[in-house]
């Protein structure tokens, strides 16, 4: 997926010190330089990440950048930022979900900003599975195991929650259980079909996610905190030297954050209503100028 933002010329050199008292001139002359004008932002097409990535792409367009949005798998998202072939991503779930990626690449990646402070994860089931409330309830559960063929329906194999789930199998002695790989979209389709027929099913789940506004679901308790206890936090991370190479972009990354209210408003439009994410975030930007002003405070706009 490619998203190219039109870029205007930097006007900072056109204003001189004699115009420093002019408010309009200050808006264009003050603030960080644009630096390199082309940026690459990799992302995985997960529920929140699709929305957040397009939001940052649109904001950076507003301040003069050309942004390529590259849809990749989780491993490539991390490795491309670490090796400098991409510039940043806003999809770092830490400390648990992407802990292995962070440990591998932390010397080459800068943690720029926490954008969401609570992102819980675990295995999940429909609420009509009343007797299944904890990961411990899966242990030795012959009846449930046979009903679902001892399968947990997973997502893409590189996702951190898949690694967490394999760890959970060991931690809770779930020797008979198998984690299948697919994609988030395929997992959700299978989950929706199962709920429609009131059939048992177990899947990895996380929040924020639009599916909780569509289906009655619950995440299983995790007494051993394999999935991070109270949950991860989500960060924007960047390659080394991005602050020096693209100061204006880096300042936007430092100021951008999210709320559940915003994400919960945008995700269903993209994933349930199948609207173009670029159109969805543009509408949100147009309807929330005060918030956009906070994100772009002190940053010249093109």
How would you summarize the topology of this molecule?
Blueprint: H1 23-29, E1 38-43, H2 47-62, E2 66-71, H3 74-82, E3 88-94, H4 99-105, E4 109-119, E5 121-126, H5 142-147, E6 151-153, H6 160-171, E7 178-180, H7 184-196, E8 203-206, E9 217-219, E10 232-239, H8 242-245, H9 247-255, H10 260-271, H11 277-287, H12 289-295
Helix pairs in contact: 2-10, 2-11
InterPro entries: ABC_Gly_betaine_transp_sub-bd (IPR007210)
Subcellular location: Cell membrane
Main location: membrane
Describe this protein's structure.
The chain has helices at 23-29, 47-62, 74-82, 99-105, 142-147, 160-171, 184-196, 242-245, 247-255, 260-271, 277-287, 289-295; strands at residues 38-43, 66-71, 88-94, 109-119, 121-126, 151-153, 178-180, 203-206, 217-219, 232-239. By secondary structure, the protein is α/β, with parallel strands linked by helices. The radius of gyration is 21 Å and the shape is elongated.
């Amino acid at each position: 997926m490619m998203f190219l933002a039109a870029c205007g010329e930097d006007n900072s050199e056109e204003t001189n010190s004699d115009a420093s008292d002019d408010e309009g001139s200050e808006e264009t002359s003050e603030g960080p330089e644009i630096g390199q004008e082309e940026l690459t932002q990799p992302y995985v097409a997960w529920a929140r990440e699709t929305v957040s990535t397009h939001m940052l792409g649109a904001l950076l367009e507003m301040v003069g950048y050309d942004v390529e949005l590259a849809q990749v798998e989780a491993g490539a998202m991390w490795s491309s930022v670490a090796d400098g072939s991409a510039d940043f991503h806003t999809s770092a779930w830490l400390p648990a979900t992407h802990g292995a990626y962070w440990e591998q690449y932390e010397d080459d990646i800068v943690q720029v900003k926490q954008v969401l402070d609570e992102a819980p994860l675990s295995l999940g089931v429909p609420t009509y599975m009343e007797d299944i409330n904890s990961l411990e309830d899966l242990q030795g559960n012959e009846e449930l195991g046979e009903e679902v063929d001892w399968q947990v329906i997973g997502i893409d194999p590189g996702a951190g929650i898949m690694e967490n789930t394999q760890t959970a199998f060991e931690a809770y002695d779930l020797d008979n259980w198998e984690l299948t790989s697919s994609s988030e979209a395929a997992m959700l389709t299978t989950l929706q079909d199962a709920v429609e027929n009131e059939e048992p099913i177990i899947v990895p789940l996380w929040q924020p996610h639009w599916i909780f506004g569509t289906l009655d679901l619950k995440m299983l308790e995790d007494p051993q905190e394999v999935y991070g206890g109270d949950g991860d936090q989500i960060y924007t991370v960047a390659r080394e030297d991005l602050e020096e190479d693209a100061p204006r972009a880096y300042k936007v990354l430092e100021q951008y954050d999210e709320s559940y209210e915003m994400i919960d408003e945008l995700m269903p439009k993209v994933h349930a209503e199948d609207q173009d994410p670029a159109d969805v975030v543009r509408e949100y930007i147009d309807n929330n100028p005060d918030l956009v002003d906070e994100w772009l405070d002190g940053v010249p706009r093109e």
